[in-house]
């Protein structure tokens, strides 16, 4: 069976990228990561990708007159490589509506909170500031909003009274590494269907 093709966009250390890569190599996802794109020349995640022998491209924002042209250059590179799914793994830019339109339903993101609570930056700090008792991680499809797309999977972790941003982030990250590969697996099994703001997960074997 032909393997699916994944592109990963990242800006930093790429821990979720490495979790996805490990899952593909272990056969847990019927796909392979064939392209990594970064907007940061020295991103650790990009260095890991090069070590793994994955094609890695660096796009510098200031080489383009505006955000849309920057995104379209990345989109063109993705389309040329026949990518099935784009995974954001700590990509620190908001994608333009033009980019999302080209790949709607084929872009996933992982966020360190139980969306729709605490979207955007510093989600762990937001959770601590609000004094919530539980937080977690969310995998969702990307739409034109900020962390507002249809939710695929979520995982809950407790928030302790002595937590710091760092301790809470570490607890959530373990769940991110678990549910992101699972969501990607469901995608390539044809088991995800977007209905409005909801994602329906079909039973195994039912991809019609």
Structural summary, described in words:
The chain is an alpha/beta fold and 208 residues long. It folds into two domains: 1-103, Rossmann fold, CATH 3.40.50; 110-139 and 152-208, Rossmann fold (3-Layer(aba) Sandwich), CATH 3.40.50.170. The chain has six helices and nine strands, in the order βαβαβαβαβαββαββ. It has helices at residues 15-25, 44-51, 67-80, 97-102, 123-130, 165-188; strands at 4-10, 31-38, 55-58, 85-88, 107-111, 134-141, 151-158, 192-195, 198-201. A seven-stranded mixed sheet has the order 3-2-1-4-5-6-7. The protein has a two-stranded antiparallel sheet with strand order 8-9. α1 (15-25) runs parallel beside α6 (165-188). The longest helix has 24 residues, at 165-188. The relative contact order is 0.15. The mean pLDDT is 97.
Count of individual beta strands: 9
Number of domains: 2
Output mean pLDDT. 97
CATH architecture of the largest domain: 3-Layer(aba) Sandwich
Supply the CATH class of the largest domain. Answer: Alpha Beta
Q: Strand count, sense and closure of the main sheet?
A: 7 strands, mixed
Instruction: State which percent range the strand residues make up.
Output: 25-35%
């Amino acid at each position: 069976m032909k393997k699916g093709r994944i592109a990963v966009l990242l800006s930093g250390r790429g821990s979720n990228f490495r979790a996805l890569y490990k899952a593909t190599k272990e056969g847990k996802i019927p796909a392979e990561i064939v392209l990594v794109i970064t907007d940061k020349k020295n991103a650790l995640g990009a260095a890991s990708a090069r070590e793994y022998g994955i094609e890695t491209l660096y796009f510098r924002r200031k080489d383009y007159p505006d955000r849309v042209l920057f995104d379209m250059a990345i989109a063109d590179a993705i389309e040329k490589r026949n990518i099935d799914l784009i995974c954001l793994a700590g990509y620190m830019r908001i994608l333009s509506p033009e980019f999302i339109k080209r790949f709607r339903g084929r872009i996933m993101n992982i966020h360190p909170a139980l969306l729709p609570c605490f979207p955007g930056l510093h989600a762990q700090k937001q959770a601590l500031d609000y004094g919530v008792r539980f937080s977690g991680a969310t995998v969702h499809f990307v739409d034109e909003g900020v962390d507002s797309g249809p939710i695929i999977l979520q995982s809950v972790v407790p928030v302790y009274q002595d937590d710091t941003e760092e301790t809470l982030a570490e607890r959530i990250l373990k769940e991110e590494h678990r549910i992101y590969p699972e969501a990607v697996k469901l995608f390539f099994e044809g088991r995800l269907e977007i209905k409005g703001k909801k994602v329906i997960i079909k039973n195994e074997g039912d991809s019609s």
